[in-house]
Design brief:
Layout: H1 8-18, H2 23-30, H3 36-43, H4 49-58, H5 64-69, H6 90-109, H7 112-130
């Protein structure tokens, strides 16, 4: 099994800090329950994909690759962080969701156990489609 240390909580804390938010206002902005983010940061826990998706939706200037892996820079190239922005279009949200899924699949595929489970699931889907 591949050793994988998930430091996503550190990057979420950095987003909070850079945006000059407290944890409560951050939780409200991404629409999650009270203390869920603060608790995860204190426990150095990983975040579920739905929470990461909410973060990226609320902060479209944050690079999904950076949030998931720590690679690259915090902000997408050409983003206007700190400036008033129009809400993202449905196309931008769709592209962001696609990029998140691709990055999650890349990370998961590096883990042998997860890879085996994914292969079994794919085989089951193919069998059900051909039946």
């Amino acid at each position: 099994m591949v050793d994988f240390i998930d430091d996503t909580y550190k990057r979420v804390a950095k987003i909070i800090e850079v945006n000059k938010l407290n944890i409560r206002s951050f939780e409200e902005k991404i629409d999650v329950s009270n203390n869920s983010i603060g608790t995860a940061i204190r426990r150095k826990a990983s975040f579920k994909s739905n929470v990461l998706n909410k973060i990226l939706h609320a902060f479209p200037e944050v690079d999904p690759t950076w949030l998931l892996t720590g690679r690259g820079t915090m902000f997408l190239e050409g983003s206007s962080h700190g400036l008033v922005q129009e809400p993202p279009s449905s196309y931008e949200v769709s592209m962001l969701n696609t990029k998140i899924k691709e990055n999650l699949l890349e990370l998961l595929s590096k883990d042998e156990e997860v890879g085996k489970l994914l292969n079994v699931q794919i085989e089951n889907i193919i069998k059900s489609k051909t039946s």
